[in-house]
Amino acid sequence: MIHSPYVRWLGMAALADWLITRTLSRAGIFIPKTPIFIRIYQALTQAGLFASTLGGVLALGFVGVLVWRGWQLRGWQLLSGLLALLAGLSILFLVIPPGGWPLLLAHLALLGIVAGLGVRAVKTHPALSVPVLAYLLGGLYQTLPGLYEFAGWVGPPSASTVLFNAGELLVVASGLAFWWMWGRGAPASVWVWAAVPAVLLSGLVLSAPSMAGIMTIWSTGLTLYLPWPVYLLSLWLVGVTVIYAFRNGTPDIGWAVLFMIAGGYAPQLSTQIFYGLIGLWLVVGFPGFSRP
Asked: Cα(240)–Cα(289) distance, rounded to whole angstroms?
């Protein structure tokens, strides 16, 4: 069983990794490099590196416990085996470049895990089918190039753009799904506080749309191809859900949603993939956690 303090520490590391390494430090590229800023930027980079390392270690430890716990439970052995395979391949990719059939196997294992968790998650909350499908489409988008290479087919896959855009649409719709499941009933004060990130993003989009697009891709993997108010509404609803979850005594829901955000859409790094899987695992009602 993994207790809430572990989830909290992992959540804070994941947030720091996401906000510092993939957002703030990259935003520094667009700021003039004065001597004072250079020192601040260097300190920020070091903090981000520490957060990334800590998040990776804690996420791998979390995954290890999930594998061990799941292997002992009836009906969870297959998912645990796939998760162990994915974790093992992720460790292997630290010493060899990812590619060929090992990378394809890792993508297929990820799709199997998301599909298995999705079946269980939808039984708990049907609206969870929205983020689950987003994960599946993002995973298929990443799997197709490796499948084409392995099979010797002529690429690139024609369906890649369609899969990616459909998945991004579902990511945006996930904000509404999360709010529908866990954010309804939030008081007005929660709505006010949750509007702050949406207002900040709105200001960035209106003042520097190109920079906003680049920063969003780096930070979350989203391309902003949809009308930008749709993204702001989704962000606002996610904020309401997270804040309300922490305030009404269901912090695992708040952390789960934050893990999914920290993982991003169609992530490239193993740690980010584990963040998203851990978020899904928390909302499924896995034995050892309180069912949301």
From this structure: 23
pLDDT at 165: 96
User: Which pLDDT value is given to residue 159?
Assistant: 86
The pLDDT, as a whole number, for residue 230 is 96
| pLDDT < 50 regions, the chain | 1, 290-292
pLDDT at 61: 93
Q: Judge whether 289 and 76 are in contact, CB under 8 Å.
A: no
pTM: 0.91
CA distance 276 to 179: 18
The answer to whether residues 62 and 2 touch, using CB atoms and an 8 Å cutoff, is: yes
Contacts of range 266-272, beta carbons closer than 8 Å, 24 or more positions apart: 266/138, 266/139, 266/141, 266/142, 266/164, 266/167, 266/221, 267/221, 270/56, 270/90, 270/93, 271/17, 271/52, 271/55, 271/56, 271/59, 271/60
Distances (CA, A) of 263 to 19, 68, 77, 267: 11, 23, 24, 6
Residue 231 one-letter amino acid: Y
Q: How far apart are CA 180 and CA 182, in angstroms?
A: 6
**How distant, in Å, are the alpha carbons of 178, 204, 239 from that of 232?**
15, 11, 10
**How far is Cα 70 from Cα 76, in angstroms, rounded to an integer?**
5
Q: Distance between CA 204 and CA 221 in Å, rounded? A: 17
The dihedral of CA 264, 59, 112, 256: what is its sign? negative
pLDDT at position 1 is: 43
Please tell me the predicted confidence (pLDDT) of residue 292: 40
For residues 292 and 283, give the distance between their C-alpha atoms in angstroms, rounded to a whole number: 6
Q: Which token pair is 165?
A: 């855009």
